[in-house]
Amino acid sequence: MPVSPRRATLATVAASAGVSVATVSKVLNGRSDVAPATRSLVQSLLQRHDYVAPSPRRAKAMTLSTVEVQFDVDLNAYSTEIIQGAVEAGAEVGVGVVVSIRRDSDRTAAWARDLMAAGRKALIAVTSELTSGQLSAVSRAHLPLVVIDPLNLPRARMTSVGSTNFAGGLAATQHLLSLGHRRIAYIGGPATAACNQARLHGYRAAMEAEGVPVLPDYVQTGHFRYTYGVAAAATLLDLPEAPTAIFAGSDETALGVMEAARGRGLRIPEDLSIVGFDDTQLAPRASPPLTTVRQPLREMGKVALRTALRLAATEKIDSHHVELATELIVRGSTAPAAPDA
């Protein structure tokens, strides 16, 4: 039986099942006076039609429209900045923000329908890797979606918000080169992540422009997390020819690099210069304060929420991908390379 692309109603499901609307309503409400075979047929058709039950009582009780900001990893300083921006933008227009963590394995076929049933006007997914099936589920549920720093770029058109990651990677590496460093390594996030690839390309472009070779061992990719920064830096600093400078793909990773360096008795920045990325609250509080590429995380949260609301209102948007400018912030974790480096 063909499934209508429109949002299904009780009448749609009833017609497909060959029963009355009242029978479908009984199944939805868990009534016992429905034959088992009929109940099974109606339930399967409700799922096939992606039926989302209206919640008039809940709608009347709600004082705010809500947008869900969803992460697939534990929250950190980066997440906090994104959330702050989204909450501020929501408060400006009377929209509430609900924050959740939903692992990839939790994004089942009913995931998007459940969000719509909960009354969400839109979904903002942060640093998530969404499959084509998950994107289709969102589309079928008519749930507007905006992704911040997507970890993959699926073929389906997807609205996203990010920053000028390539320019940021370029500026970070040029800064280290200007200080006389030539043995510069890069520690980034997931190899397939679009933001990581852009930062890595910026790093490579700066090195190539100066005619400085990039040694294969000098590029490490894994996760934008503290523990990975410790592990990857340990690998780099144990090389026979260790780097004199490391560009880390996030502030959290950079703090891990600092820890690995201190564990080997290295001084920062005298023995090792470090540059991070994000400029979260961690950066100025590090010891020494971290030189980093400022990513406008709060503004990214604001832009994502405003864009999501425009999609929910079926307004036309100017671009399906927005990049906000990055800026190099020089602090105490970088210094000129030693004369013999």
UniProtKB/TrEMBL annotation:
Keyword annotations for this protein?
A: DNA-binding, Transcription, Transcription regulation
Respond yes or no to whether keyword Lipoprotein is given for this record: no
Entries under InterPro entries matching the protein:
HTH_LacI, LacI/GalR-like_sensor, Lambda_DNA-bd_dom_sf, Peripla_BP_I
UniProt GO MF annotations: DNA-binding transcription factor activity; transcription cis-regulatory region binding
- Provide the HTH lacI-type domain boundaries: 8-62
Pfam families in UniProt: LacI, Peripla_BP_3
- In terms of domain of life, where is this protein from? Bacteria
Protein name as catalogued: LacI family transcriptional regulator
**Source organism of the structure:** Nonomuraea glycinis
